[in-house]
Design brief:
The structure holds 2 protein chains of 2 kinds. By secondary structure, chain A is mainly α. Chain A has 12 helices and no strands. The model of chain A has no long low-confidence stretch (mean pLDDT about 90). Chain B is an alpha/beta fold.
Chain lengths: ~260, ~230
């Protein structure tokens, strides 16, 4: 049976939007505008991407795949940089990180014959890898900034004892990586027990045998796990040094950090 | 030992003074005067925008920053201990320079009047006063020649503050250290210091012998500060 949701049925989804909207209204959360905007934006984005994918799937793989991956990486870079826009060169570091991770993961998939080089397989799976890496980089940047603020005294203590920035930041780097990786470790531990992962659900709904769906899910889950780990590690190790200047002094204001070349 | 020549940085304007070896200098003044900012210039946690700071006749910029910080130790207002045990904390500095020896641990705790049984304690289990003692031991572990103290007792209750003061006094005398301490407490300045530097709005307003300064202030700013 082909899964089919009619446009009329889709309209009833408005009920699901109405619930958080009512909660926001009654408890004066001030989120109504945000909820409405994100719902409308999300819907438009999904339909647009649906049409774009239909078009890309009809193109030759050698054109459609690089084109879509370039768009995804560019959008992800712009989005993730917002979490650390005061850090010098953050855009280029994120862009570089995402490109290396995507190329690495894609090469593994193709080299070991896990995925076929067709737009319908590579684009959605790459989207998951790039999207999760983008979130991991954003989280790591945000967490790192907070850790530097909260541990200002400890960092000064370490520097004043003669530590170099790399040694002084060790605790912060550890905490940042921990925070970025733990959700993924937890997710991997409970995969299939608490919720059926999205890709597997989609394949099963699309009529694929559960055993095959599991194989695809394993490929994507482990790919995401490793790319998230690498993204968080890369961006943390690349950016922590911008919180210090060349004289091994801690920069305590956003302005001082931004003014570094 | 230290010589500041026309130093300008942040709120500090054209500060000049010299400090001799083994001198006990207290920096005091109203909030926002630039006391802590001035203190952090001694070990290059800040660098002046203008002017020169000399240590032993050499510009501190020409000296290796990690060596300078080892020679010029700093104790902050909050202990800011690193997660782990007391031992982990006190060996931190010497371990960076490959100079740690386990037998030093008990001696360092003795200096700050803590029993050696504390070495394996998690720092989270210590009281505020004990944490500050460990912080002091951690700085002393590097065998500094100069001890910078940024209001080390201001976050402690009166009794604990007094105990830390006593501990500091005996340490500084015993080891012949040069002490430069920020304080907002004039009684503490009188008890621990010999010389006072009084700062207002980033300017060095008075520099002199503490009992004389506090008993007969030369400026109306210091007179007002003592009254307040």
């Amino acid at each position: 049976m082909e899964p089919e949701i009619s446009n009329q049925s889709l309209l009833f989804l408005i009920v699901f939007v109405f619930i958080p909207l009512s909660l926001s209204y009654f408890y004066q959360l001030g989120l109504s505008k945000n909820i409405l905007w994100s719902t409308i934006r999300g819907t438009i984005q999904l339909f647009a991407i649906g049409y774009l994918l239909t078009y890309l799937f009809d193109l030759r793989a050698a054109i459609g795949i690089p084109l879509m991956i370039t768009i995804m990486i560019t959008v992800a870079t712009f989005h993730a940089r917002l979490k650390g826009k005061e850090l010098p060169h953050v855009f280029w570091y994120i862009l570089f990180g995402l490109i290396v991770i995507e190329v690495g993961v894609l090469s593994m998939w193709l080299l070991f014959d896990m995925v076929e080089f067709t737009p319908s397989e590579v684009i959605p799976m790459s989207g998951m890898v790039i999207g999760n890496s983008m979130v991991a980089m954003g989280l790591a940047l945000e967490r790192m900034k907070n850790e530097f603020k909260e541990n200002n005294g400890r960092l000064l203590a370490a520097l004043s004892l003669g530590a170099k920035p790399k040694t002084a930041s060790k605790l912060i780097v550890q905490k940042t990586l921990n925070a970025a990786l733990i959700p993924n470790v937890d997710q991997l531990k409970t995969i299939g027990l608490v919720q059926l992962p999205g890709m597997m659900t989609g394949l099963i709904l699309g009529g694929v045998e559960p055993a095959m769906a599991i194989k695809y899910q394993l490929v994507i889950s482990l790919s995401i796990f490793s790319s998230v780990s690498l993204s968080a590690m890369f961006i943390t190790l690349a950016m922590y040094r911008y919180f210090f200047n060349e004289q091994d002094q801690l920069l305590e204001t956003e302005e001082a950090i931004r003014n570094q070349s | 030992m230290f010589r500041f020549e026309d130093v300008t940085y942040g709120p500090l304007k054209n500060i000049s003074f010299s400090i001799s070896k083994k001198e006990k200098v207290m920096l005091f003044g109203p909030s926002g005067a630039g006391k802590s900012t001035l203190l952090y210039l001694f070990n290059r946690l800040h660098s002046p925008d203008n002017g020169t700071i000399l240590l032993g006749g050499r510009d501190i910029v020409e000296q290796e920053v990690t060596d300078l910080r080892k020679r010029v130790g700093l104790v902050l207002q909050e202990p800011n201990l690193f997660p782990g045990t007391v031992l982990d904390n006190i060996k931190y500095g010497p371990a960076l320079f490959g100079e740690w020896q386990d037998e030093h641990a008990e001696q360092l705790l003795r200096y700050v009047q803590l029993p050696s049984s504390y070495l394996d304690r998690d720092v989270e289990q210590l009281s505020g006063g004990e944490k500050q003692r460990v912080s002091l031991a951690r700085t002393l572990a590097n065998s500094p020649e100069v001890l910078l103290l940024d209001e080390p007792t201001s976050a402690l209750d009166y009794r604990t503050a007094e105990e830390i003061e006593e501990c500091l006094e005996s340490l500084i005398n015993e080891h012949g250290l040069t002490m430069i301490m920020v304080t907002h407490n004039l009684n503490q300045a009188r008890r621990l210091g010999q010389r006072g530097l009084f700062l207002v709005n980033g300017e060095l307003v008075e520099d002199g012998n503490i009992p004389e300064m506090l008993d007969k202030p030369d400026t109306k700013e210091l007179a007002r500060f003592i009254e307040e």
